[in-house]
Amino acid sequence: MNRPTSSPVPLKALPPPKSLRDRLTALQYRAETLEKQRQEALRRLHELEAFLALQPGAAQRLEQLATAYFGDILQEVENNLSFALQEILGQNLRVVTSREVKYGKVHIQFGIERDGRPEDILRGQGGSVCNVLSVGLRSLLCRNWTKKRIGAFSCWTSRTAG
């Protein structure tokens, strides 16, 4: 029989079996630890996904609540401003509002109706309607908010096309 005279790896270069076993044990422990961490991360991911799945329903409900809440307030504002317009100008004018929630904020649009027909606030009565509404809205703001939060408010500052 022919025996090879030299092995492909010299025996002196191989670590002792105990060192290899210790290294294998450490690697197995590390694998178990990483698997536990992976399982925990997956569990947290599923919790977060379940929580985030609630968001559309919660956002829709908040939108409904905000619309209802502001609906009550705006109804009172409409009534008071309509009364002011009718008393000051002596005409059959009614303030109307439309509201919607966009991007988490309530957007309110004011308008007026004369005998049930829409009329442009800025053009009607040469600005007198706008002035009455502006004073009425400013007084409402002054009663309900601090001076710092009021800022510049006037129907002249923001004109929407329409």
Describe the protein's architecture and organization:
This protein is an alpha+beta fold and 162 residues long. It contains 4 helices and 3 strands. The chain has helices at residues 17-53, 55-89, 128-144, 147-150; strands spanning 93-102, 105-114, 117-119. The protein has a 3-stranded antiparallel beta sheet, covered by helices on one side. β1 (93-102) and β2 (105-114) form a beta hairpin. α2 (55-89) crosses α3 (128-144). The chain starts with 16 loop residues before the first helix and ends in a 12-residue tail after the last helix.
**Helix run count:** 4
Main sheet characteristics? 3 strands, antiparallel
Order of helices and strands: HHEEEHH
- Total beta-strand segments: 3
Please state roughly what percent of the residues sit in beta strands, choosing from under 5%, 5-15%, 15-25%, 25-35%, 35-45% or over 45%: 5-15%
End-to-end separation: 104 Å
Q: Uncertain regions: pLDDT < 50 for 5+ in a row? A: 152-162
Taking strands numbered 1, 2, ... along the chain, how are they ordered across the largest sheet?
Answer: 1-2-3
| Helix-strand category | alpha+beta
Q: Which word captures the global form?
A: rod-shaped
Helix content: 55-70%
Mean pLDDT: 79
Gyration radius, rounded: 37 Å
